[in-house]
Amino acid sequence: MRPRHLPSRPVRIAQRVRGSASGGGGGKMAEPEQKRRIPLVPENLLKRRKAYQAIKATQAKQALLNKRKLQKGKQIQFKRLETFVRDSWRKRRDDVRLRRMEQRPGQVTVAKEHRLAFVVRITEIKGVSLRVRRVIELLRLRKIFSGTFVKLSPLSLKMLRIVEPYVAWGYPNLKSVRELILKRGQGNVNKKRVPLTDNRLIEEHLGNFGIICLEDLIHEIYSAGRYFRNVTNFLWPFQLSVARHAAHNKVGFLKEMGKPGCRGEGINQLIRQLN
What we know:
Elements: H1 9-23, H2 43-73, H3 81-103, E1 116-121, H4 130-138, E2 146-151, H5 154-162, E3 167-170, H6 174-184, E4 186-189, E5 192-195, H7 199-206, H8 214-222, H9 228-234, E6 238-239, H10 243-256, E7 261-264, H11 267-274
Parallel strand pairs: 3-7
Antiparallel strand pairs: 1-2, 1-3, 2-6, 4-5
GO cellular component, one term: cytosolic large ribosomal subunit
Family: Belongs to the universal ribosomal protein uL30 family.
Domain Large ribosomal subunit protein uL30-like ferredoxin-like fold: 117-167
């Protein structure tokens, strides 16, 4: 028997498919497709872009943190009615007291041997009269339990009378002056607190006035000498503390501390309590 041959139709179909793909049925050759060229970017420009994006991301993160801090700090603070009443009463009381002082100026008698006073602020000054606040700032008693040395004169005595309900003052002895300066003495150097641990620091800032060591500084303050004002301006206000007593009984200690006003020699006991 003669073998049967496979039909040649699939070959013709394949040829037609090839022809249609190549010529599109028209017998013409298709134009080659053009390739898209990607523009090249210099490497330094890419580095700059990356650095700029990193900077912008950091700035955005910092701005968000600052905004959160600002929102946290802008929380509404409520004040009780008693606070406004207390501040108003304190201001009115100061105005009446100062008016009486002007109408009936009383003379504060101080013994001639007392030329030096130490003033400590022992109460809050919220809501006080503007005149009282100015004197407090002149005495540099901006913080509670801060103290300064004052040279006694008619003007300084008048200032002490103005702020008398808020400060305790008296006549310190040499031991109290020495203990305050040795333990809490700090100099004002470029508006920064610098402990008085080196005589060279004192000589550098007060050497023009003949004060070259701690002993000279203590003597100038205790004697209320010629350069007393220069020395006190160099010294930072003494910041005393009740931290040792607060752990036991702070309220009781504040009661024991007594009322404001002139203490005389009793200021030495207060200095030892707070120093």
